[in-house]
Amino acid sequence: EPEVTQTPSHQVTQMGQEVILRCVPISNHLYFYWYRQILGQKVEFLVSFYNNEISEKSEIFDDQFSVERPDGSNFTLKIRSTKLEDSAMYFCASIPWTSGRNANTGELFFGEGSRLTVL
Amino acid sequence: RKEVEQDPGPFNVPEGATVAFNCTYSNSASQSFFWYRQDCRKEPKLLMSVYSSGNEDGRFTAQLNRASQYISLLIRDSKLSDSATYLCVVSHASGGSYIPTFGRGTSLIVHP
Q1: In what order do the strands lie in the sheet with A5-7?
Q2: Which residues neighbour B103 within 8 Å (Cβ) at sequence distance 6 or greater?
Q3: In this structure, are strands A10-13 and A114-118 parallel, antiparallel, or unpaired?
Q4: Measured distance CA(B24)–CA(A47) in Å, rounded
């Protein structure tokens, strides 16, 4: 069964360093998302990506964040200068989009997440 | 403004019990509704979609009340393996975007 894969599974970094989290979505999916979950808190929307551009972003997704899909498969989240409060689990997710009889249900397919620890 | 609200619990129930969770949402234009399950430090996984007419999948029953903007999940005959956090997810489409929004989740602990 196809799956969303994320790397690294865990990254420890010093405050102020740049971090790149990588995701390989399911190949025929069209909508891509990054969510984050701070330990003990809710899953928060960061950004959605469609047709090779950002379609929507939350207020959390400020100038220190960026997303790219450089080669049509990998989908990356970059945090330019990490802060202590960026410590969280970052989930990549995707949704297929079809119409007709097998119309998309809107189910999100998640990767296993990348745990970021900022010291 | 909280878009999707859930009672965080925990709900602590014995095996075999029936337990119900509710969720309310604020965006009346919401189109799709889901329950996800999340185990500790794992990714959320779809439990079931929620349809207007209500739907059932084995021991799980989901209901949607659009007029009151709430969704429910009923779990019958609870098993130890049902212990997890149950996430209510509500999606809306806007200008080409489709954004699933999560509630903070309701924690369920099933004990022997």
Answers
A1: A5-7, A19-24, A75-79, A65-68
A2: A42, B4, B5, B6, B23, B87, B88, B89, B90
A3: parallel
A4: 23
Interface test with A, best of B43, B49, B90 (most A CBs within 10 A): B43
Please name the residue that has the structure tokens 């924690």: B107
Confidence of residue B47 (pLDDT cuts 50, 70, 90): very high
Report CB contact under 8 Å: A50, B42. Answer: no
Chain pair A-B, CB pairs under 8 angstroms: 57
Of A90-104, B2-16, B31-45, where does mean pLDDT reach its minimum? A90-104
d(CA A60, CA B31): 24
For chain B, state the CA radius of gyration: 14
**pLDDT tens digit sequence for B61-92:** 999 999 999 999 999 999 999 999 999 999 98
- Separation between Cα atoms, residue B49 and residue B33, nearest integer Å: 6
Report the candidate in B7, B92, B18 with the shortest Cα–Cα distance to residue B61: B18
pLDDT reading at A25 higher than 80 = yes
Q: B94 and A35 in contact by Cβ < 8 A? A: no
